[in-house]
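hey can u check if this looks right to u? its 271 residues, i copy pasted from the old doc so theres a chance i mangled smth
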Amino acid sequence: MTDSNHMPSFRSDQIEPTAIDQLVEVLDMQAALPGIRRLREWAQQALAVRTGERALDIGSGTGSEVFEFARRVGAAGSAVGVDPNPAMLAVARARAAEIGVDAEFTEASVYRMPFEDNSFDAVRCERVYQHLDDPAAATAEIARILRPGGRVVLIDSDWYTAITHPGDPQVVAALDADALARSTNPGSGRLLRGLLVRAGFVIDDIGSQALIWDPEAVLPMERMFTETAVAAGVITAAQAEQLFADLEAGVRSGDFHMSVTMFAVLGHLEG
């Protein structure tokens, strides 16, 4: 999944095969961001997957977190990833083969996963909920496949916390409002705790990180999204050009900030 301040992340099942290489490049770039690294490390430590356990990553993308599960569970356990995009699954399987990791990747929707009840000891799900029109159903499905005592970490962005600086505040607000209106579940980060509680989970911990963008990585995507907003009449072409002049000047002077806050919630089912 990918994030940019004025457009929530792409759904991987909506990406054309010809765009997979570009999506993989973006995902790899995001995985290197300090905020993502810190939150993923926190999630892995919080889940505390042990040797012999069965662990699942929902929305597994390039497979990186499944590979970490595989390292932790060892030969006696199993590490599984699910993703709705066959081309992305092919990337994950190829990377697993390249590094010699024993991991399983399955095409599936979070609403209906091909696993028996009580199949897993631990589940993680990162930046999937922002795309869901029925997050309660997805959370119930996670509860179904977890064993009694099983742990889950949900991670997602809260797009109401997006910051873009510098730039005309009215132009930035118009772009943000347009992105929020087009998003399925923009406030997903703040909703994770309540969804887990209503699905019967006990909350154990909550973490957060600001995903702070590197300008060289984010500005090309930002320009693409801004051009879409101009075509839709959200802002004018002149406003878009001025925004980018301001952003580029900010980058040159060191006065630049683009971020969104991500939240992670750890819970468990009582045994």
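The chain has nine helices and seven strands.
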